[in-house]
Design a protein that fits this description.
This protein is α/β, with parallel strands linked by helices. The protein has 16 helices and 23 strands. The structure holds nicotinamide-adenine-dinucleotide. The site of nicotinamide-adenine-dinucleotide has 26 residues, from helix 8. One of its GO terms (biological process) is thymine catabolic process.
Amino acid sequence: MREIRHFVNGSAFEGASGRFGDVFNPNTGEVQARVQLATEGELDMAVQAAAAALPAWAATNPQRRARVMFEFKRLVEAHMNELAETLSSEHGKVIADSKGDIQRGLEVIEFACGIPHVLKGEYTEGAGPGIDVYSMRQPLGVVAGITPFNFPAMIPMWMFGVAIAVGNTFILKPSEKDPTVPVRLAELFMEAGANLGIDLKGVLNVVHGDKTAVDAILQHPEIKAVSFVGSSDIAHYVYSQGTLHNKRVQAMGGAKNHGVVLPDADLDQVVKDLSGAAFGSAGERCMALPVVVPVGKKVADELRDRMVAEIETLKVGVSTDPEAQYGPVVSAAHRAKIADYIQIGRDEGAELVVDGRDFRLQGYEKGFFIGPSFFDGVKPGMKTYHEEIFGPVLQMVRAESFEEAVELPSKHQYGNGVAIFTRNGRAAREFAQRVNVGMVGINVPIPVPVAYHTFGGWKRSAFGDTNQHGMEGLKFWTKVKTVTARWPEGEVGDSSFVIPTMK
Ligand code: NAD
């Protein structure tokens, strides 16, 4: 059985906890590897390595740090196929989507290639007589990222791309469900340094684990900041425990994104967009669109008919099948949870128009496949509307008015993303302005902002006040120092017992 080890101080590190997590191949349902789960002591060894690497890395000039990012990008691109195949075999998303996962992470690395420019400070000459004021952003020190299973390449790169480029050293605790790609990224990062003659040992470390490793991160006095992405209850736990231990924390949580369809929308396009956004990656995306809100009976009825027809064309297959639109979900337990939600939805009175639970893929009967499901008549107050299902399930909630369509996503406990489909610019503008959600798409079903903007939801979709990547990421991973400098001329001045003010 292949064993996935930690990666500390530039090389594979043999843990001695004796505890392992199973890594499945979701296509076959077989255990394909086991991953070591760290002890508190093993996490501490990674922290020591990161702390030892910190002074040299923080003192490396920003251009050299950017060159590492350029070289890392080149290496990841050169290994794209290998990385995508590995990612797909552990996660279950199709190869093209696995490449998208890696590419969206690489776009943050591209942002990090420009770090010398964006890291420049501010300067005011002559803020007073002979007084200049300047501010600079300095790294925090040893920092950590804890990531979910659903984007094993993109989300680690969201975090370590910016954190390392600004001069921190990093500990990544990836999901124990698909841990191989994060380790490969760390290996390629070391290779990038070696190609440039820069020793990066300890700059990026990967420690696998479960709650034990997460708690060790949250309590370790040497770790200055923690970025987390995962489900909301754990995000809230990480936020409260991390801040309790005096760390800077950003913690992104779950989602239940709505797609509002106004009567004037281009329904041909909407059906295609909804299908991709609801069922792509088997619905295991925090920016999936699992709730559709048509406004008015006419558009709802028409959309329902078209959606059913569209679902019939979907191809679910093994993740290596180039024709498959989506593959299996990540685990048997997750598959069972989705099936349970479908039953609950039915029991609580929603109409199950398409039931994907009986889907079986011939030759892969033990794989974690589930067909697409579609509900009509879903209502606020239902458990299956309130909670995140995180599977290939689309729920239709009919709204009677624009007001109701603004209200539904605004009042939902999650506020990650939302989309509106319309040809009416004024309505779209008003919706974007009023809706109580962090990321909005206008005729864009999955409004994940580009890397030089910033990613983050509202309400129970994010705890903390800074987003991922872009300038918000830079802010999160650095602290500001402001210097007020006076070089007086002439005689010694008197003491002042009054707070200095600018006259
Ligand atoms: P998860 O919360 O189960 O796991 C996330 C991380 O937390 C993993 O590294 C895991 O090892 C760790 N963890 C799990 N249980 C823990 C516990 N009891 N104590 C401490 N740490 C624990 O999430 P997941 O299933 O891997 O990912 C799916 C979730 O992530 C969904 O809810 C999805 O919406 C969310 N997500 C959110 C965003 C976002 O940006 N808002 C992006 C991607 C995924």
